[in-house]
Every structure is written in C-alpha cells, then in structure tokens.
Amino acid sequence: MAQLSIVLTEAAESLLADARERLGDDLTLVIGNGCCDSTAPFLFSRYVAGPAERPVAEVGGVPVLLDAALVDLFEGREVVIDAGADPGGDSFSCETELGQRFTMQRVPLPA
C-alpha cells in the first residue's frame, strides 16, 4: 500500500456532510484513472469497487479508493480534497447535484 495521507478541507467536510444528509451513509470517494486524469475524486452512492481499486483511507466516515495503476503517483504524498462551486454540473459525482465539486491536490508528505 502506498504511504499517503488524505485530508479534507473545511469546505470538503461540509460538502461531504451535505451529501451524506441527502444520500445516506453508503458513500465512497474514488480517485480513478478516468476522464479527470486523477485531478478530482468522485463521490458515489452505493458504489461497487472494481478489481483494480484499493482502499487507501477513510475520511469523514467515507472510504477512499485509489485505482491501483495510480499508486506510484501518490506514494509519499498528502492528498488534500477541497470543494467549490461547480456551475457546469457535468460530472457523475454525487456532489454536483448540490452545485459543488470536489477537487484535490497532491503535495509531498512532511518529512
């Protein structure tokens, strides 16, 4: 398993709480190798993990899965998940129904 840390900003914590209130507790954040080139996590309700996805953390009571092909890109990093307005709403991620979108940055872990 990659050595990494995943944290939520206050805005992301709030958005995750809003999504949980609307959708229930069966949520999963997925960092994948899809259309966003690993620049945004996707929030899914009642998600069934694929064979190449690995659990790497839990934030706000929500499991975080990482595509196995991305493990080396995340090694030794802190993943900071933030949230902000999403006027487009063109994502499959659940939070876009609330007019917002999760974003993320990878930064080196402190020594």
Characterise the protein shown here.
With 111 residues, the chain is an alpha/beta fold. It has one domain (4-108): HesB-like domain (Hypothetical Protein Aq_1857, Chain: A, Sandwich), CATH 2.60.300.12. 16% of the residues lie in helices and 41% in strands. It contains 2 helices and 7 strands, in the order βαββββαββ. The strands form 2 sheets. The protein has a 4-stranded mixed beta sheet with strand order 3-2-5-4, with no helix packed on it. The radius of gyration is 13 Å and the shape is globular. 27% of the residues are buried.
N-end to C-end Cα span? 19 Å
Number of domains: 1
Helix content: 10-25%
CATH superfamily (homologous) name: HesB-like domain
* Rg measurement, Å: 13 Å
Quaternary class: single chain
Output the structural class: alpha/beta
Proportion of residues in β-strands: 35-45%
The counted number of beta strands is 7
Output the number of helix runs.
2
Summarize the structure.
The chain contains two helices and seven strands, in the order E-H-E-E-E-E-H-E-E. The chain is an alpha/beta fold and 111 residues long. The strands form two sheets. A four-stranded mixed beta sheet has the order 3-2-5-4, with no helix packed on it.
